[in-house]
Amino acid sequence: MGHATQWSARLVVSKKPTLNFKEHMSFTFDTETNKREPEPRSKKASAKVRNALLCVASLVLVAALAAGTYLFTLAQTYNSNTEKIETAFPEDGTRPEKQTPVNGRSAMNILLMGSDSLGVSEIDAERGTPSDQRSDVMMLVHIPADRKNVYSVSLMRDLWVAIPGHGEAKLNAALALGGVPLVVQTVESIFNQRIDHVATVNFEGFKGLTEALGGVPVTSNVAFSVGTYSYAAGPNMLSGEKALAFVRERHAFADGDYQRVRNQQAFIKGVIAKTMNAETLSNPVTVSNLVNVFSPFVAVDKTLDAGAIGSLAVELKGVRPQDMSMFTLPTRGTGTSADGQSIVITDPNAIQKISAALAEDKLGDYIAANNFQNGN
Questions:
Q1: Pairing of strands 150-154, 160-163
Q2: What is the rounded CA–CA span in Å between residue 315 and residue 269?
Q3: Which residues pair with 199 in a beta bridge?
Q4: Looking at the chain, which terminus has fewer C-beta neighbours within 10 angstroms, N or C?
């Protein structure tokens, strides 16, 4: 034949009740090229879906790499900026036994200390060297094995206790007498519970912390003034020096340190609430600033590195501010020691009950029974 012939084949599927084809399928062939055209619509659609999936997968991979780099940078910043307490714990033979894990996990006790002091004496105290250091804040943070709550027991700095190897003295004297290891040993002997981690914070870091957060909301149960700063009874928004004055002040109150401890608890609650806010957590710049400005004012035991913090954060991912309770170890008020010091007198009954609650991992029950959910 002298010219190309074309023919068309049309496949027609009859419409039966059991079938639902909306279109006929058409194919056109060229006898010389033996090519089929055009491409079926189903193949075109498949190609588009495949390309879209590849695009999405690429974006996910890029996002994962970016997130990984971001988290790695945060971890490096934390690990390099925080000071490590080389000797944070006493000799193991002097300590309570570790708790038996429940379903693969044990309750955790963290000793948190805060101080106004700066300088070489602070470093000496952290390393276990006697110094003139004093701890103005002391909290035993208890995290149950189920990781559903966080509880904090504040210990009055002037609490008159037995300090191992030194007789009776104010609790905050332990830091001066034997550094962090002696503080740990003293608190462990009070409750007969092992402390797993230690962190010390210098108050100066609170200024940068509040500014990085854009202010910290606190609720004060009393109105008071410190120099040029005034605080209302009720909600207050604090930042910078005003936040620092809020956690430091004790002379403005009739009950002195008792109110200062309440204010410190209120500040920590405000920091937690602001930090756990979705707006904060979703802002990488804010989170990075928080780690940068606060970590240089923190010293931790060698095992409380970024990896340990990250693991604990994952375990506590379901905890919200309302799942956290802070209260002060009940006492029998103030008094005077035999050598004339103003002291806070321990309440052995309260200590015994809290010790038992810690041992049984039921501190939440003790808090509920005494209505300490919002402090005391």
A1: unpaired
A2: 20
A3: 112, 300
A4: N
Residue 252 CB contacts under 8 Å (≥ 6 apart), including other chains: 224, 225, 226
Residue 367 · residue 254 · CB < 8 Å: no
The closest alpha carbon to 84, from 197, 239, 250, 7, belongs to 197
> 35: which 2 tokens?
């090519």
Whole-model pTM: value is 0.79
Query: Of 6, 319, 333, 372, nearest to 147 (Cα)?
Result: 319
Structural tokens at position 288? 């990075």
350, 346, 349: which is closest to 367 by C-alpha? 350
pLDDT digits (tens, 9 = 90+) for 124-163: 555 555 555 567 789 999 999 999 999 999 999 999 999 9
pLDDT digits (tens, 9 = 90+) for 93-118: 889 998 878 778 899 999 999 876 54
| Residue with the two structure tokens 């023919």 | 7
Cα–Cα distances in angstroms (integers) from residue 315 to residues 20, 79, 275, in the given order: 52, 20, 17
pLDDT (tens digit per residue) in 303-335? 999 999 989 988 998 999 899 999 999 999 999
Residue length, the chain?
376
Strand partners of residue 229: 226
Q: Which among 285, 284, 276, 220 has a CA at the least distance from the CA of 253? A: 220
Contact predicate 200/108, CB 8 Å: no
Q: How many helices (H) and strands (E) does the chain have?
A: 11, 18
Rounded Cα–Cα distance for residues 58 and 62 (Å):
6
- Measured over the CA atoms of residue 71, residue 74, residue 80 and residue 84, the dihedral's sign is negative
Q: Residue 164 in 3-state DSSP?
A: coil
